[in-house]
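Box 3.1 A note on notation
Throughout this textbook, protein chains are presented in two layers. The first layer is the amino acid sequence; the second is a token string describing backbone geometry. Keep the layers aligned when reading.
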Amino acid sequence: MDPDRVLEGLDPEQLEAARALRGPVCILAGAGTGKTRAVTHRIAHAVAAGVVTEQQILAVTFTTRAAGEMRGRLRSLGAPRVQARTFHSAAVRQLSYFWPQAVGGPMPSLIESKIQEVARVAHACGLQLDRTGLRDLAGEIEWSKATQVRPADYEKSIAKAGRTAPMPVHDVARVYEAYEEQCRDRNLLDFESMLELTAAMIAEHPQIAERVRSQYRYFVVDEFQDVNPLQKLLLDAWLGDRDDVCVVGDPNQTIYSFAGATPGYLTGFSAAYPHATVVRLVRDYRSTPQVVRVANGALKHARGPAAEHRLELAAQRPDGPDPLYTEYDDEPAEATSVARKIAALIDSGVPAREIAVLFRTNAQSAAYEQALADAGVAYTVRGATRFFERSEIRQAVHTLRGARQGAGADPIVQTVRDILAPLGLTPEPPEGRQARERWESLAALAQLAEDVAAARPGATMDDFVQELEARVATEHAPEYEGVTLASLHSAKGLEWDAVFLVGLTEGLMPIVFAESAEQIEEERRLFYVGVTRAREHLSLSWALARSPGGRKSRKPSRFLDGLRPASPSLANRENRRQAKVVRCRVCGSTLTEAAERKLARCGDCPADYDEELLERLKAWRRGVAEEQRIPAYVVFTDATLQAIAEHVPADQAGLSRISGVGAVKLERYGDAVLALCAGEEPAAEYRGGEPHEGGTEQVD
């Protein structure tokens, strides 16, 4: 390869990144700024210039699909032998190879999902949990292991982190310890233990460390803002005392802190490597100037460490349509109108697969599924079971592989449709959600056959199966010709021509249980991620009531202030909130911790709350949580209940002044809480309140 030719077509900032070939390099890359292009050209340039061989490079990212895309680009640039892998795939490969030397005996079986194992130990511990509870518990164990928290330290660690457990902390710690014991007894290994064991193997066996470090001398880490302490431990083990590492990311797209991710490694990179080269990519090639203005405005009032590294995007595309801001009376009206707008976009020529409806919680999906079905618009729900893990897809892939030899030169589109018909691919989608999801999966395979035939005239069945197998290997699911419905978390890394951000009200965006300043800022970043998924059309909407005829008490999300027409700017209000000083009502000290500010006293100052009231509040909360099938902390956190028991408010105004009691919770639970504070039993209609929209939320 000619090193200069590799650099052709890069913009000045991408060129600067690609030419920084040695030592630590930090690329701060805003949404849509071509970070993958910059990184792959940098790798190819290093190979072409003789700085490093292909086999000595390890490029690490977070999804199999992203790793596959990176390998594809490197092949086209003349560097096909570069290893581009996820942390997990790189670790399992090394651990498997060195296991006989480092440990000996049979290699443990890898756990694909914790939920089944967690269910087994939770039952043994006397806990009866539904699917949501098991998912929350498995997620808590994953956070603990990713942040290197042991079962014995769990209670102390979550208090320090300001984290709320999904159930009593001693129960979480008990199940966590039993889960670890079960994995050891049954020779099982989860993803977190795999990373930890790989790092330990390198640290404890000098000969293994020497072999690994002689193999890999040049590192690239994508999405570095999503790295957790355990992944950083493994990266440090790979590096040793070397510094040929290039990290890429955007602190303002950190949206997985609930899983242990921290932007601190990215924002602190220059401090860790004072001689590092830092490059900022700000030219946005994805979105129109109109969308970019909304994205920049979304972060205008951001606070915290990530905001200090905010990148002001500069749009490179021509002008497009103005974003739409729409207020509706109720949620059904919002869903119906969005479906009609989508149908109009499709009629105007926008492909259905290039349209997405994004929401904060998976519970919001149902209304849009129904509205789109009523409008005759095909759709697919993202974030459920991985495409190639679905039973109908496994069966279809097996059948298609078996048919590749006898198909000859028959047209692949009709051949594929004929093969899939007995499996459930009918001309029209069936009724019922499960049947429809199965049909959509099979239709996506048929669509892939059409795409292959269109891109490669004369393609055979063997060509199609080769394409399918390549996608299976990289988890690159084919796109179904339908509108995408997805949570904001599962939309990360994707983009569409048209994006509808829906349900933008206080209590959903930010979510009701985001109480601390750090949690609010993460919600702001999640909103920013949603905005930056749109290339051209952006619609933002909210509903004032949940149901037709309901009380219109909801307020538009604070993140829309200063963006939507005639809306106020939150700058002054946020500045006042940031500047407010809260002092301990016992000793007068300034309070800085969120939990202490909520209680209005230092954690070690004597409490003066009504213990009987606190127990009654907790019993009431437990009943509400069981009735609504939501975690207890979604109703109120322990700290909020303790603050209520200490203040014993007599009216709604007093209750609303307690941190953690926002407008949504006040409306839903206020009467019940005030009755308890008055020593009375809540009226029957106020015991459970309205079911919480986000109670069955699953983030991806």
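The chain has a mean pLDDT of 85. Residues 354 and 496 are 5 Å apart (CA to CA).
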